[in-house]
Amino acid sequence: MSKILVTGGTGYIGSHTVVELINEGFEVVIADNLSNSKSGSLDGIEKITGVRPAFEQIDLCDKSKTEALLKKYPDIEAIIHFAAYKAVGESVSQPLKYYHNNLGSLINLLELMQQYSIPNMVFSSSCTVYGQPEKLPVTEDAPVQPATSPYGNTKQISEGIIRDTVAASANINCIALRYFNPVGAHPSALIGELPVGVPNNLVPFITQTAIGIREQLSVFGNDYNTPDGSCIRDYIHVVDLAKAHVVAVRRLVENRNRAKFEMFNLGTGRGVSVLELVHAFEKATGVKLNYKIVGRRSGDTEQVWADTAYANKELGWKAQSTLEETLKSAWDWEVYYKESGGWK
Ligand code: WQD
Fold this sequence. Notes:
The protein is of the alpha/beta class. The protein contains 11 helices and 13 strands.
């Protein structure tokens, strides 16, 4: 059974990926410092899969502790590296926190992969590396634009660090997965997105408004050059995204990658506006949403969605969930989390 280290594995995308890895017969070790997640997600993973993965609470910026982890769990065949700070707004106000954490943890892992002969990494990247693409939908070979936030810049720099390290290391291969907008929750509603404080992202703000935690959703601008004036994104169900990670790690473990460093866009290939998403949520859940149109949010890209042809063909993977199914799963999770009294 292949052993996979999942950093950030108690987090939103990480926990959903751990469920799919276990379902596919992988042995999983989670490393997470719980700075942006709760250990309650381990209970959810166990309830869904019947397996409670090994869990180590650790800060990957501490190299000696990270080395001790790798000694404790020998024979790791791949690392799926989610652990990073990811709040765009916070990265603008605290850039050094982001550069130190996101780059420091990655460099520690890569150095230790060389030292302990761990051959594979799947890296959690983001469509923010594209900025506002000149051509839509955006393909993997689209030019990387200057990052619009320190968060986005850490993703661009991280890809460069990985590219150079892989080129200089005979025994390391990597796949970078560039996510568009991950949303939704596991159909069991036992795990889902747990924003800390006021949600920055659209869908958790919508579900918290619908359940009464938030008073009203603010739609940031309807004067963009789009059909209904609101911004367009590619919203992908987190379970579809998680399944793509299993495909990617298997591709590396089975040496089917065509290059030492590959990257894939993970989206649905469909652009959806903020207002379309609001109306789709109301249709999917039957819940009327209280919202108002306000001014634009600085740093927002007007429109971006994925060209998924390469990922579909090369990985043999395609997002399956409809927008309505995805939004209903997000709502079911919000309802479950409230009724269950939340996680410790
Ligand atoms: C989507 C749209 C907002 C909140 C960011 C990161 C990306 C990834 C996902 C980490 C935009 C609008 C939002 C609200 C709104 N993060 N909106 N009212 O900015 O596309 O992507 O999060 O992996 O890397 O860049 O996501 O959900 O914040 O915004 O109108 O209360 O919803 O203006 O048009 P974004 P988002």
